[in-house]
Structure formats: C-alpha cells, structure tokens
Amino acid sequence: MKEMIQTLNAPQPSGPYSQGVKAGNLIFVSGQDGVHPNGESAGESISAQATASLENIKNILAKQNAKLSDIVYVTCHLAELNQENVSEFNEIYASYFKDVAVKPARITVGSKLLGVKVEISAIASIG
C-alpha cells in the first residue's frame, strides 16, 4: 500500500508528483531544489541551496517520524559538476550526516536544472 506524504514545511510540488511516498517500510522523497518551503530561492550559493534541499528532505521525512539517519540512498544533482562545487556541496552534505554511523549510498551527477544549482532526492528505510 502506498501513502502520499505532504507537508507545508517543504516546497509544494510544481507538477503532478508527491513530495514523498511511503510504500511499506520505504520512504521515497522527490527531488528537493535549493528553495525554501515558501518557494523562494535559498540563494545563489551551492551551500545555501544544498542546505535548503536537505532541510526540505528532513521535513518531509519528519512527517512520517523518520530522520536523516533513516536514509539509505541519495541522488544529488548539481547544475555545474566541477571540483569546487562538489567540495562545497560535500561540506554541507557531510554536516547533515556527521552523526550517522552508516552513511547513505549516493551518486552525484551533473544535470541541467531549471533555475537552481542543487536538487536532491532520497530513499529512507523505517521500521
């Protein structure tokens, strides 16, 4: 059975998709851009956008009483994939998972993004 996850503490979907879906003991969080829940840009920097993206993911997970430590897989999209951006991104990303014993599996790719520099999606396992 699938259950839609919806919260006002993350940006509302701009298309025909859910912020998140719970299916059994898995939570699938849709890609979260570097914007605040009200839809405003978090800023131009990779750091600001990565922070906003991860906060949005954290808030969607919280709707199901899940935490970042429940995440098992993350897909990270950067509009410009270069060493400087990846380093800046990794600094913020690492701060969100510093106390997590088993870090999530992850891929980071360069993608054409519409008006943002960062988008992150996640899969969490609960229960």
Describe the structure.
It is a single chain. With 127 residues, the chain is α+β, with helices and mostly antiparallel strands. The chain has one domain (2-125): RutC-like (60s Ribosomal Protein L30, Chain: A). It contains 2 helices and 6 strands, in the order βββαβαββ. InterPro entries: RutC-like_sf, YjgF/YER057c/UK114. GO terms for molecular function: deaminase activity. One of its GO terms (cellular component) is cytosol. Pfam families: Ribonuc_L-PSP.
Give a quick rundown of the structure:
By secondary structure, this protein is of the alpha+beta class. Helix content is 24%, strand content 30%.
List the helices and strands and how they pair.
Layout: E1 2-5, E2 20-23, E3 26-33, H1 46-62, E4 71-78, H2 83-96, E5 105-110, E6 118-125
Parallel strand pairs: 4-5
Antiparallel strand pairs: 1-2, 2-3, 3-6, 4-6
Protein name: Translation initiation inhibitor
GO cellular component, one term: cytosol
Organism: Virgibacillus profundi
